[in-house]
Design goal:
The chain is an alpha+beta fold. The chain is about 25% helix and about 20% strand. The chain has three helices and five strands; from the N terminus they run ββαβββαα. The strands form two sheets. The chain has a three-stranded antiparallel beta sheet, with no helix packed on it. Strands 1-2 form a two-stranded antiparallel sheet. The longest helix is centred in the C-terminal third of the chain and has 15 residues. The radius of gyration is 17 Å and the shape is elongated. The relative contact order is 0.11.
């Protein structure tokens, strides 16, 4: 995935953690390269957490999670999920909301296979 500001391609570091930073822009996870991080306004376009204001957000399985306060919200609706929500529960809830019980059941079975019994 390229840097969302300049388009530079990410390369793996030789040692240690990556100097690239993650963020969320318009509900999509993005990366910011070290060169762009040197600009004072590099965080200007990133979304912040509705609860704590942190920019440490990640997106996965149609959910956006704050890595600081652990708030999880549905990326499609913006609704906060319960504190004990597991990744993917928004997907199951969305399937149930379609009114198609077979789809909701299929999603629930897939989540149980991947995550185990809750």
């Amino acid at each position: 995935m390229p840097c969302y500001r300049c388009g530079a391609r990410q390369t793996d570091p030789e040692h240690g953690p990556s100097p690239w930073k993650r963020g969320v822009v318009r509900e999509h996870q993005v990366l910011v390269c070290p060169a762009c991080q040197s600009h004072a306004d590099w965080t200007a376009g990133l979304q912040s957490c509705a609860r704590c204001g942190s920019l440490h957000l990640i997106r996965r399985l149609d959910q956006v999670e704050c890595l600081d306060c652990r708030l999880i919200r549905d990326a499609l609706t913006g609704d906060a999920l319960p504190a004990d929500a597991l990744p993917g529960e928004a997907l199951a809830a969305g399937a149930a909301a379609t009114g198609d019980p077979s789809l909701a059941d299929e999603v629930a079975r897939a989540l149980r296979r991947v995550l185990g019994p809750v």
